[in-house]
Amino acid sequence: MRISSNMIYNAGLSGIQTQTASMLKSTLQLSSGKRILTPADDPAAASQALQLDQTLSQLTQFNKNLDSVAASLNEENTQLTSVTDQLQSIRDLFMQSGNSTLTATDRNSLATELRGRFADLLGLANSKDATGTYVFSGYQNSTEPFSADLNSLASGTQSDSSIYLGDQGQREVQVSPNERLAVGDAGTSVFYANGQSVFKTIADLVTQLESSSGATTAQRTTALANLDAVMANVSSTASSVGTRLNQVDALQSVNADLKVNYQTQLSNLQDVDVTQATIDLTRYKTNLEAAQASYSQIAALSLFNYIS
Amino acid sequence: MSGLIGVGLSGLNAAQAGLLTTSNNITNQSTAGYTRQSTVQETSISLATGSGYIGQGVNVATIQRMYSQYLTTQLWSAQASSAEKDAYQTQINQLDTLLGTNSTSLATSLSSFQSAIQDWSSNPSDTASRQAVLSTARSLVSSFQTLDASMTSIREGVNQQITTSVDTINGLAAEVASLNQEIKNAEAISGGQPANDLRDQRDQVLFQLSQQIRTQTVTASDGSVSVFIGSGQSLVSGPTAASLTAVTNSEDPTSVTVALETPYGSRISLDESTLTGGALGGLLAFKTESLDSAQNALGQMAIALTSAFNNVQNSGVDLNGNLGGDLFTIGSPGVTVNSDNTGSATVTAALVSSDYRLTYSASGYTVTRLSDSADMGTFTAGSTISVDGVTITPGSGTPAVGDSFLVKPGNDTSSRVIAESDNTGTASFTSSAANSQTLTTSDYRLIYTSANTFSLTRLSDNTSWSATGATPAAALATLSSDIGLSLSVSGTPATGDSFLIQPTRNAIGGLSVALTTTAALAAGTPIKAAASTTNTGAATVSGGAVDDVSQMPLTSTMTLTYDSSSKLFTVSGASPAVGDISYDPSSQSNVAIHINGVAFTIAGVPSNGDTFTVSPSLSGANDNRNVLAFADLQSAKLLGASSGVVGSSNTATISGAYAALVSRVGSKAAEISVSATAQTALLAAAQTARDSTSAVNLDEEAANLLSYQKAYQACAKVIDIAGKLFDSILAIG
C-alpha cells in the first residue's frame, strides 16, 4: 500500500491518544476507588449497586428500629415484673382475708392495705416508657389509660368498662422487609380477665371486707379466681414480650450477617481492584512511552535529509 | 538543429511543469483536503519522413489529481456516521453522568425519605420525627426537580446545537453551490482542463457538510455536484442552494425541528427520522431515543410515587383529628394542540386517582367516582365497565339488588375489587390498574382521522389504536383505556387535526410538598375495631383499615353481635344500615369483613351474644398504622402495569424503576461508546484509504524532485548539444 506522510503522523497521534485516554481512566479509577465511574462502564452492575445501596440503607434502618423496639420491650418487661410482684402481694392479702380468726379490725386493716396496693397497681398500669408513651394505652397517648376510683367502681357509679381510656391498638414497628414486631400491649389484654378488670376485682373485695359481715367464701373464691386469671394474663403477656425480645436478638444477628454480605457484594460490584488497576496503569504508561518513542523516530525519517 | 532545440525545449518545459507540480505537492502536504497532483506527459506528434516518423519531443497534456470518487464518497459517509455517534455520545454521557452521580442521585434522597418514615413509625406523634419526614420529602422533591431541570437544560443545549448545526449546513451548502458555478466557469475558460484546486475545495466543503448531516451526491456532466439529504430532498442543485431552518415543532413548542426552505420560497417539513448522520442526526436521535424517554421516565416515577403516598395520606388521620390532605402535588399530563390545526377543539388528558363504587339496582350497575361523587353512568350487568382509563370486567356470578362493590385500581391485583360483606349475590369483578401505575414513558399522538374517529399512536413503538363513536367525545373516551388517562375533548375538531399528549413530561414541573405543618401528616387510621371486654368467647378482632375514604370519618359506632344459632353477625348502629354477615367458625377460621368503607378481620370462635365494635378513632397519638402503610410503599411495586388490561399487575418499585432508568441510559451510553469507537476506526480506515491514493508522501515527492531535476538537466544538455552542433556547422565556414 502507498503510504502518505499524513498517515504516518495520524497513526502515531491516534496511538498516543488512545493510550493517554486509557491511562486517564485507570488514574480516575484509582483516585476515586471506584471501578464504575459512570453507569455506562457497567450498566448492569451500576443498577444492582443502586438496589444494594437501597437494601443496605433499609437494613441500617431496621437495625435502628430493632434498637427502639428492644428499648420499649425491656421497659415493658420491667413494668410487667413489677405488676407481677404487686399482684403476688395482693394475692397474699386475698389469701389472708380467708383466715377465719380475723376480726373486723384485722379485715379493715387488710382492706386498707389492699387500697394502697390498688393505687400502686393503678400507677403501674399508667406507667410511661422512656419516650413518654403510656405502656398500656394502645394507640391513645393523650390521657392516662386507667382512671379508676375504688369506691365508685365498687358501688357501680363508675362502670368497669369505663375505667379504661385507652384502646385495643398495638403499635407495630417494621423490623425486616416482611416482619413487624408489636411494641407495648393494650391495657385490656393485661388487666382484664374473665370479663372484668383486676381493679374491679380488688374494689369489690375491699368493699366486701369493709362490710360488717366481711367477705363470704364464695365472694373470696370468685375474687381469687379473677385475680389468678389476670395473673395468668400478665404472665402470658410477659412471655410474649420475652419471645419478641428473643426475635429482636435473632434479627439483630441475622442483620449483622446480611450487612457484611451486602457490603461485600457492593464492594465487589463497584470498587476498583487496586492491583489490577495499578498494573493496567503501568501497562498503559509503558505503551504510551513506546508510542511516543516510535512516533518521534519514524517522523524524523525523510529522504530530504539525504538530498544535499 | 532547430528541431533538436525544439525537442529539448519541450522536455525542459515538461520537466519544469513536473518540478512545479511536485513543489506544489510538497508545499500543500498538510493542506486539508489537498489531492496530490501529477503531470500527464504525452509525446508530441511525430514528423513523417521518408525514413519514418521522427519524434518531436514531449507535451504536458494535463495536470491531474490522484483522485478516487469512490474513496472520497466512502470517506464522507464514514465521516457522517462517526460525527453522528460522536454528537450522540457527548450528549448521552452528560445524561449518564447526571443519573450516576451520587450527589444528584434520586436514590439517595429516596432512601433518606424512607428512613425518616421508619423513624416516624417508632414515634408517631413526635414533632421532630414528623419534621424529618417533611424535610426529606422536600429534598426528594428537589432531587426530582434537579434531575428534571438538568434534563431540560440538556434539551435546551441540544436545541441550540441543532440551530447551530443548521446554520453551518446552510453556509456549507451555499459554498458548494457557489463552487459549482466557479468550477463551471474556470473549466470553460481553460478549455476543459480540470480546476483541480476548486474541486479539492468543494470536496473539502462536502466533507465538512458530512460532519453535520449524511448526504447523497450526484455529479453532473458539467462538473457540478448536486447534494441530497433526508429521504431525497435537494439541498444543492448546481449553482443554487436550498436552506434548512430550525423551527419550533408545530406539535410540541418545547422542541426544535428542521424544515427545508426551497430556493422557490416554499417550506417543507422534514421527517426527523430520515435526517440521519452527522452532528444533526446524532442530536435528533439522542433527543427522541434517549432524552425524551429518560425525562418521561422520571415523570412517570414521580407520578407513581406521589399518587401512592397521597392515597395513603388520604386514608389516615392527622394529629388534629382530621383526615389527611395530599402530601404532594404533581403536574398534570400535557396536551398540545398542533399549531397547524384548523379545528377549534382542545383535548384534555387527566390523571385520575380515585376509587369507584358499583351499586347494583334493577337497571344495572351505577358507577360512582368516589373522589368527587360523580355519577359515571349506569352499565348493564355482564358488560365491561370503562371509566377514566380504568377497565372493570365482570366475572361469573349474578348480582342481587343492593349489592355493592368497591373498586380500588391502585391496589394489588387480588384486592382491586372488594365486595361488601353483606352482598347477597355472587357477582365478582376484576379491574385494571390505576392511571398512575399504567403510564408509559412514551408520548402519544392523537389524530382526528375522520368524522367521529380518533386514532392514538404511542410514539415509542408506533403502536396505534383507533376508535369511532357517536360523537368525537365518545370516540375519544374509548381510547382512554389505551393510554390509561381520562381523555376528553371540547370544541370541534377538523379532520387531520392532531394533538400531542405527554402524560408524564410536565409531572415534575408541578411537583411540590403540599403539607406545611408537621401535625398534618397522617400517622393514624381513622377507625378502630375492638372486642368487648365482657365477651366470653375466644374470638378476636384485628386489623381495622379504611377501604373507602369518602365514608370517613365514621359518624357512628357499628356493633357486630354474634348469633351462634344462625351463625351470623347482626350489625347495629351502621349508617347506612348493613345486612347480616355470616360466620361459621366450624368451617371458617377467620373472616375479612368489608362494610361501609372499613375493613377488619374476626378470627376464632365467638360465643353467642359476643360483641365487636368498629368506631371512629381520630385521636390516637400513638397510632402508627398509617405510617406502616407509608413504610410498605418502599417495597411496593407501584408502576409498570398495562393500561386497560384487567388483572395486570405492577412490575417495579420506585427505586427499582430508577435503577432500571440508570441501567437503560448506561447501556445506551455504553452501546453508543462502542459504536462511536467503531465508527472512529472506520473513519480512520476510510481516511487511510483515501490518503493512500490522494495524499502526499514527501519521500515520493523528493524522489520526483530528483527525477524531474535530472530530466531538466538532460534536456538542457540536449539544447547544449544542439548549440554545440550549431557551432560546429558555423566553424566550417
SSE blueprint:
The complex is a heterodimer of chains A (about 300) and B (about 725).
Chain A: H1 5-32, H2 43-96, H3 104-125, H4 150-155, E1 172-176, E2 179-182, H5 187-191, E3 192-193, E4 196-197, H6 198-210, H7 217-270, H8 274-299
Antiparallel strand pairs in A: 1-2, 3-4
Helix pairs in contact in A: 1-8, 2-3, 2-7, 3-6, 6-7
Chain B: H1 2-27, E1 37-43, E2 47-49, E3 52-54, E4 58-65, H2 69-100, H3 106-122, H4 127-189, H5 196-212, E5 216-219, E6 225-229, E7 233-237, E8 240-241, E9 243-248, E10 256-261, E11 267-269, H6 278-314, E12 317-318, E13 328-329, E14 334-337, E15 346-350, E16 356-361, E17 364-369, E18 374-379, E19 385-387, E20 390-394, E21 404-407, E22 417-419, E23 429-431, H7 435-438, E24 444-450, E25 453-458, E26 463-468, H8 472-483, E27 486-490, E28 498-502, E29 512-513, E30 522-524, E31 527-531, E32 540-546, E33 558-563, E34 568-572, E35 581-582, E36 590-595, E37 598-603, E38 611-616, H9 625-632, H10 654-694, H11 698-732
Antiparallel strand pairs in B: 1-4, 2-3, 5-6, 6-7, 7-8, 9-10, 10-11, 12-30, 13-29, 14-28, 15-27, 16-17, 16-21, 17-18, 19-20, 20-23, 21-22, 24-25, 24-28, 25-26, 31-38, 32-37, 33-34, 33-38, 34-35, 36-37
